[in-house]
Batch of 3 targets.
Target 1
Amino acid sequence: MTKPVVILVRPQMGENIGAAARAMLNFGLDELRLVAPRDGWPSAQADAMSAGALDKMSAVQVFESVCDAIADCHYIAATTARLREMNKPVLTPSELAETYASRSGEGQKVALLFGAERSGLNNDEVAMAHSIVNIPANPDFSSLNLAQAVLLVGYEMFQAQCAIEPVAEVDPPAPQADFENFFTRLESELDKGGFFRTEELKPITLRNLRTMFLRGDFSQQEISTLHGIVTSLRSK
Amino acid sequence: MTKPVVILVRPQMGENIGAAARAMLNFGLDELRLVAPRDGWPSAQADAMSAGALDKMSAVQVFESVCDAIADCHYIAATTARLREMNKPVLTPSELAETYASRSGEGQKVALLFGAERSGLNNDEVAMAHSIVNIPANPDFSSLNLAQAVLLVGYEMFQAQCAIEPVAEVDPPAPQADFENFFTRLESELDKGGFFRTEELKPITLRNLRTMFLRGDFSQQEISTLHGIVTSLRSK
């Protein structure tokens, strides 16, 4: 799969470039391009904020215009806070990630454009994109900083990239026979302790108990712990 | 729908608390709790970094322990970078968001625990949670800062909030304080019965027990049934 390229357009603070680089590498993106960075490049502030990410990524490329920066790309998505009146598809980050997964699978190079800190992308730049990416957020407090926008888009790309398998497995529940065995013992011990007020209510109470204990999905190890608990409580 | 509570445990830098608050409000989360913040509370650094978020949120509450901070919550998820050897479900942020959407639809209060900047949550704190949340990231560069972890979890919550309607039917779990109360009693009764072989192993055994019993998601009624079981088993 071809990895997407992140393009920061007229970024101002070196710190923000560094934080964006860190967010990129967190999700395995390692190709960063800059269009006309205000304070030039390289940047000591960017290095410091990247927490080592810039050293591990491909060398950052600097371009004079968006047009140059996207020349070798096949699909361009423009991240914007405001929605524009342009007849382009507006995607959520997760929809973009799906688009990316299928296009990059075909060998296409996908570029993600992010505008300057305050001003964002201008209309001509947005017009160069195939789609607009809009991050759904609290309408009363929607301002995300540059690195956070990069983080969220990178996160969604990363989810799409690896078909996500569970990170760790919980122990499997014990075979039902082990559970029954414990449950039978519990019933008999509760009987001795006078737990069931009346014979009439006993079946209902037992059903409720069974429901409770079944919900635990106890493993074999845990069933034997439960036996230990009963033994311990019955002692003396 | 009940909104989730974000709990920062022993946060160090006020700046990080402020950045986390901003990330929360970006996705509509407005209840922040702090456990033992290193530099006290309120914090001028936090105010500055929150970009106005702290003023718009509910007043931040400060607690001395995780136990106190989660007392009124019904479901606790612990965000950790390292996976622990605990028999708890490990969720991605989007799986957590689904869980949250269905539980909050039933009126349950969901709490998200985030540990201190470097050290994270300790094992006893993780043990109090029903599930562990792990953010899948680049294994070679996985370190996210606190605000970014909050941002990603908040983002997924926000996506899920709109989508899923409540499942309902099952009794809601008891508030965490009821569970603690039962668990404390169980521990003391097990002590009397000689359940814990050595003082050394006791903390680990208790963590495992807690994990088992938390999985049951017991309602108030069921917690009182558990008390009844202990009483009955202890009787001669």
Target 2
Amino acid sequence: MKELTFKACDMHVHFRQGDMLTKVAPLTAQHFARALLMPNTTPPIRTAADARRYKREVMDACSQYKGFEPLMTFKILPDTTPEMVRDFLPSLGQIPIAVAGKVYPKGLTTNAQDGVEDYFELFPVFEVMQELGLILCLHGEKPGKYIEGLDRERAFLGTLKFIVATFPDLKIVMEHITTDAAVNTVLDMPSNVAATITVHHLLLTYDEVGVDKMRPHNYCKPVAKRAADRDALVEAAISGCPKFMFGSDSAPHPQHKKECSECCAGVFTAPIALPLLAEIFEQHNALDRLANFAGRFAWRFYEILEFLDKPAKQVTLVKEPMVVPEKYGDVVPFKSGETISWNVKN
Amino acid sequence: MKELTFKACDMHVHFRQGDMLTKVAPLTAQHFARALLMPNTTPPIRTAADARRYKREVMDACSQYKGFEPLMTFKILPDTTPEMVRDFLPSLGQIPIAVAGKVYPKGLTTNAQDGVEDYFELFPVFEVMQELGLILCLHGEKPGKYIEGLDRERAFLGTLKFIVATFPDLKIVMEHITTDAAVNTVLDMPSNVAATITVHHLLLTYDEVGVDKMRPHNYCKPVAKRAADRDALVEAAISGCPKFMFGSDSAPHPQHKKECSECCAGVFTAPIALPLLAEIFEQHNALDRLANFAGRFAWRFYEILEFLDKPAKQVTLVKEPMVVPEKYGDVVPFKSGETISWNVKN
């Protein structure tokens, strides 16, 4: 029986807060050694104190899973100051309280009403992040009312180029890319620029979100694009290029907030992401590259030193069918009720 | 106070059957003099006997509205025969039992699982329709699994060209067009080829359907496209070109079949279509052309002789605000709860 064992990292995941956190965090912790937690909680994670408190909550919720550790981020808002950023790394050489700051474009996804319209305003913050070696994570869609939704990611690439040119030593991750244009732009950039790719964007086109059928459980931001875009993402993920890392963007919402008018954006994949990735990579004869895409490339780019010191759990994927549960609590997962040809070995 | 009085025609509307018919048919009959009823009921309207029975049901439901008359259609299926078509016009020169036949592409909209994949198969039927002067209505999206949803209308234009070239005397209506490509193709064709345009496609882009927000009550087939497409549709509707007629494609579905996963396709506009059209036409300084777009062009193209003999009700639109009801029964209308600057005078 085919098996694959490695230390898995999910470099983009939403745990939310409160009861939802308690329910979903262990579903990530049981498979992954490290996960980068998004800071767009309610209220957001803005300060070092916020990040410390949030990390404790997550560690408490996941205490049964040794060898899992959350990597913290902070939300960069128009009023974030360089001083607030310095707090995340009290002394150089230490492990920072948060490893990355995340910028959300105003109004374009869940809890982004407080997001950014003018990236220039953030340059003093980016300057300090570059100095401290903190990573900048970008939701790569351009805000503003004169851009159509399906064009926002392509329109953002100019903004990305300008930030990259201005801060040559800043490590930047364009999150959950969805277009061939983004793949090519990131490929053309220097090695301090990388991207995450979700598992659902390796499978979906817009037809499965809102054209052929309207499927709110497949709806996320940025929305899946065309088949040519999806194919470019698969190509990037299996390429072995260390610029492309796995980030699930797994985002839980209760069923009634998905099956409604104006549903929340987010696809819940955390507990099935690794089996699905194994299925996709196997289909493309690239199973030997999965441990890089969904693990090693992340801890190299993020320089997750703790991997050397602290225990990091391994996951073993095994080729045997699993049926995706209809629900996890009141959250309907991606591929609900469908069968995947890989599973996680207990 | 601005007023506008004319005989309105809705050349594409769904009444469905049973209780839904009883509820929605009067909402059309109270405003429109004529309406072309789509035959994709359950079961479908396939034969002259079906059409006679369905017309009676509609007339019964609308008996309080004198001067309204439904125009019947039949559903053209792979097994429709020329003989079945001849039944719709028992003797030449008479008013036909159905004025048009409608082709649905397989699987692409509500009740289209029995639809067509191979248009060649239908050529014997088209031949008889051409001979009898019956009109061919086409849902203009190309079926088949290798075409992306957003491309289906453009892909269909080749099929349309071939049918038009093969049957030069067949009157053809491409229904509910959604792209600038369809506008231009219809414009380039001879005068026996026309198109209907809905009111929601004059207002929506897919951002308001499934990208910026996911709004199932705006979801229909074909889905709204880009801003440039919407603008081309507005241009066509207000142009004064008699090839472009109003057809609402109003399609009622109960709320629970819209606010769910894999919702039904269809936007319910019947009771607010004329006020909305007046608002749009006024915004574009084209109010004087509304009576043509939403009336005269239809009865000319369809040669609705009954207009001369039978009473045809007039509608008076008046510039005064109306608030769209949240619901009509359990059907949530387009623009639910919003205010329109025009109303229908009682």
Target 3
Amino acid sequence: MKKIITISREFGSGGRELGKRLAEHLGIAYYDQEIITGIAQRSGLAEEYINNIVEKQPISYYPITIGRTFASAVYPQQNFNTNVYIEQSNVIEEMAAKSDCVIVGRCSSYILRKSDPYNVFVYSDIESRLRRCRLRAPEDERLSDDELIKKIKNIDKGRAKYHRFFAEQKWDDRENYNLCINTSNIPVKQIALPIAELLKAVYINPKNDK
Amino acid sequence: MKKIITISREFGSGGRELGKRLAEHLGIAYYDQEIITGIAQRSGLAEEYINNIVEKQPISYYPITIGRTFASAVYPQQNFNTNVYIEQSNVIEEMAAKSDCVIVGRCSSYILRKSDPYNVFVYSDIESRLRRCRLRAPEDERLSDDELIKKIKNIDKGRAKYHRFFAEQKWDDRENYNLCINTSNIPVKQIALPIAELLKAVYINPKNDK
């Protein structure tokens, strides 16, 4: 069976960077935006629109952009989002079947539950998340700290709702994860290598000395 | 400032063993039952009685054993337990001031919050905890699985209540910890060395390459 590491992460916690660095240290594939691209290719939907669904609650209504055509008609949104979720599951399952890999977000811990993945949850205090967002997102420059914090919390609320809707479990409940790591005040660069070593020891090449 | 690692743990999760092995790998002191012994020496209370208070809700009533004298009178229990908590804080603070160390349980993550400890929470699914308890506690042999599970859950309920009462925070809330590690189906021996390496990298000897 392939070795799959999934990364779920609070927005601004550095989870995506950690996933990328783990994949580098372990010499395995890394999937993140590729999942969205895969769904877009199968469904004909725009990547931005899929991102909106996957990061937000699946039962709300959005105007829909198909390819380059803007459609303002109201769709039966819930079925529609369920279809996106099904495509997402297919894409993630195919990726996981190909080779050992790190997969970031998008309910991958739940979708791959039968493949015995190692599930990591990355979180941070709000100050560290604010700092990380300021560093990486110049488009948010115009936002005040309070506004940016609100944005961060809203994105997480969306992830939690999406996860609860499709996975029927609490997104940030430690029981759904093998490891939860707090990146407050810690550069992700510093933790990636020792966590890669931990993953080797307990998951990728475990010794059988019980 | 001394380097202090605190271990909080669900009963049967192997947290105590992890603490002991981390202290060995890191070559630092390990405090566990020593805390109870310290409180006993200062207060004249029996160790077993102190254990009862520290592992259970602090506002319930127990018959009290002072030294070897059994006193059945009802004490103003809440004040009494608060005094035990104060002694416990003193003992833990003294231990933490002496040298780098690993301290297991007893609200140490909260008591030492100003010393910037690295706080680890260890947890496991109930099946793994049951197996660990069966291996280590022959006195529970007479208990059925259901009874032992009830006992395990009750001990954790007591720890949670004690923590909430004195630390005014949720005992098992990941936000109070730097690392939460799930030991389901994993021998603690296997994770101790890589976690010790992680601790060195992020806490004991961190590099300053931000």
